[in-house]
Amino acid sequence: MTDPQPQKTVMIIEDEPDAAEMFAEMMRVNGFRVLKMFSSAPAMPLIAQEKPDIIILDVMMPDISGLEVLRYMRHEPTLTSIPVIVVSAKSMPSDIKIGIEAGASMYLTKPVGFLDLKQAVEQALQKV
Predict the structure, then answer these.
(1) What φ, ψ does residue 89 adopt, rounded to 5°?
(2) How far apart are CA 11 and CA 50, in angstroms?
């Protein structure tokens, strides 16, 4: 008999509580342990401490832009391999290009449906 897979952790960094809770619920249904953060600054040391399996990140945050969090992670050797799915209301092709160039594994535009988020998380985790 094989050991069950250890529970994967997803960190959700989203300043809008309703959206954060919706994403959290989507991930809980899929068996993830969920960490929610409502601003970027306190999330950054927690990312380094927890090293979640995947991060769902909003771009427009009240303190530090989600893109800055992403750039920070991509320059930290211990965090570079963590997949990050950017979920943003910024949906212009130039916004998406900037997000991908900053190091996003995937870029989804709001509103995000359950299946789209689930597929994006599964795809991003397969690439690790």
Answers:
(1) -80, -15
(2) 9
Q: Is 12 helix (H, G, I), strand (E, B) or coil?
A: strand
Query: How far is 69 from 41, CA to CA, in rounded Å?
Result: 8
What strands, in cross-sheet order, belong to the sheet with 84-88?
A: 33-37, 9-13, 54-57, 84-88, 106-109
Angle between helices 17-29 and 114-126 (to 10 degrees): 60
Classify 56 as helix, strand or coil.
strand
* 49 domain-assigned: yes
Please report whether residue 104 resides in a domain. yes
Please indicate, yes or no, whether the overall pTM of this predicted structure exceeds 0.85: yes
Phi and psi at residue 37, in whole multiples of 5°?
-130, 140
The torsion angles phi and psi of 58, rounded to 5 degrees, stand at: -85, 150
102: tokens are 């900053």
DSSP conformational letter for 31? T
Q: What is the CATH number of the domain that holds 19?
A: 3.40.50.2300
How do residues 3-15 score in pLDDT, each as one tens digit? 556 799 999 999 9
> Are 101 and 71 within 8 A, CB to CB?
no
